[in-house]
Design a protein that fits this description.
The radius of gyration is 18 Å and the shape is globular. The strands form three sheets. Strands 2, 3, 4, 5 and 6 form a five-stranded mixed β-sheet that branches. A two-stranded antiparallel ribbon has the order 1-9. α1 packs parallel to α2 and α3 packs antiparallel against α14. β3 and β4 form a beta hairpin. The two termini are 21 Å apart. The protein has 294 residues and is α/β, with parallel strands linked by helices. The longest helix has 21 residues. The protein has 14 helices and nine strands.
C-alpha cells in the first residue's frame, strides 16, 4: 500500500471492501498513509480508517490538517489528534491484535542519517521486551514517522534515530515483499495507470532540502532522486502486472484529491471508488487459491 496523504482514502475504501469479503494476507506492508490505513486492516477494525480520514476531517477541519496547523505546531497534520486522541480515545486502536495477529505487518520509514528505508514489523522483538505502554507508544511513533512528510513535518526519533516518510525512498515496497519470499502480491496504488511523477517535482526542492536537512546529506540525495526512484517502481509494477506476478488496484481516473485535501465530498467519492474496485476484485477472485478468505 503506497501513501499519498489524503489520496490514501482510496486505499481505505479498498481495504474496507476486503474486510467485508473476509480477505486476509500473511504479509502486509504499508507506506505513509498506507501504513496508517494498514494498521486498521490488520487489526480487522472495519470503518476505523474511513473515520480517521473522512469523519475526522468533517469534524475538525483546519484543526485536522492545514497551513495553520503547520505554522502552529511544525506539522501539517494534527499529531496529537491523530496519534493520541484517535488511537487512545476517539476510536481505540486494537493494540493486542496488532501485536498478536499472525499477519506480519511492515511499516516503512526513511532513516535521515543513512538515507535508506527501514522496515518495522508488528512482530518486532523490541515490542515484547518493553512494558505495555512503552510498546504501544513505540508503535505509534513508527506509524507517525512513516507518515511524516518532508518539509511540512517534524522529524520523528525512533530509538534515537531521526525518521521521516517512508515514501521518500520506498513508495511501493513490492521488491521488499519479494525479498521476503512472497512471489505474488496485491498492490494498492493511489494514482491512476500511466501516472509518472515529473522529475522537477523532486529537484525543485533541492535548495530547500539543502537548508532544512543540511546535517543529513544522504537524505538530501534521496530527496533529489525521489521522483526517479518512484517512476522506476511504477515501471516495475507495470512489468510485474503484465507477467501476472501482481494484482494492481488503482484509481481509474486521475486523482482530484490533493495530498492535504479537506473537501469531504471529494474524499467520500474517492473512498467510494476504492470500495467499488475492492469489492469487484474480491468478487472476481473469490475462487483464487492464491488468496485467503476467512
Amino acid at each position: 500500500m503506497e501513501g499519498g496523504g489524503m489520496r490514501g482514502v482510496f486505499t481505505t475504501g479498498v481495504l474496507d471492501a476486503m474486510l467485508d469479503a473476509g480477505m486476509s494476507f500473511p504479509y502486509v506492508v504499508g507506506v505513509s498513509a498506507g501504513a496508517c490505513n494498514g494498521c486498521s486492516f490488520v487489526t480487522r477494525q472495519r470503518g476505523r480508517a474511513r473515520f480517521s480520514n473522512i469523519e475526522m476531517v468533517r469534524r475538525y477541519g483546519s484543526e485536522y490538517l492545514g497551513v495553520s496547523m503547520l505554522l502552529k505546531t511544525g506539522n501539517i497534520f494534527n499529531v496529537k489528534l491523530l496519534y493520541d486522541d484517535l488511537p487512545n480515545r476517539l476510536w481505540p486502536f486494537d493494540y493486542d491484535t496488532f501485536f498478536s495477529t499472525s499477519t506480519e505487518f511492515d511499516i516503512v520509514t526513511t532513516n535521515l542519517v543513512s538515507g535508506r528505508a527501514e522496515y518495522f514489523s508488528n512482530h518486532l522483538k523490541d515490542y515484547a521486551r518493553l512494558p505495555l505502554e512503552e510498546s504501544r507508544r513505540l508503535a505509534l511513533q513508527v506509524i507517525l514517522a512513516s507518515s511524516s512528510l518532508p518539509y511540512v513535518s517534524r522529524k520523528v526519533f525512533i530509538n534515537g534515530t531521526p525518521m521521516l516518510d517512508g515514501g521518500i525512498v520506498d513508495s511501493i515496497p513490492v521488491k521488499h515483499a519479494m525479498e521476503k519470499g512472497y512471489e505474488k502480491s496485491v498492490v494498492i496504488l493511489t494514482r491512476n495507470k500511466g501516472y509518472r511523477k515529473p522529475q522537477e517535482s523532486s529537484r525543485s526542492f533541492d535548495v530547500l532540502s539543502a537548508v532544512m536537512y543540511r546535517k543529513y546529506p544522504a537524505f538530501c540525495k534521496a530527496l533529489h532522486e525521489r521522483g526517479e526512484v518512484y517512476n522506476s517502481q511504477l515501471d516495475l509494477i507495470d512489468k510485474l502486472e503484465a507477467q501476472g506476478s501482481v494484482y494492481v488496484l488503482r484509481p481509474e481516473r486521475p486523482i482530484e484529491v490533493d495530498r492535504i485535501e479537506r473537501d469531504v465530498t471529494k474524499l467520500e467519492a474517492l473512498y467510494d471508488e476504492g470500495y467499488a474496485i475492492g469489492e469487484t476484485f474480491c468478487r472476481d477472485h473469490s475462487n483464487d487459491t492464491t488468496l485467503t478468505f476467512l
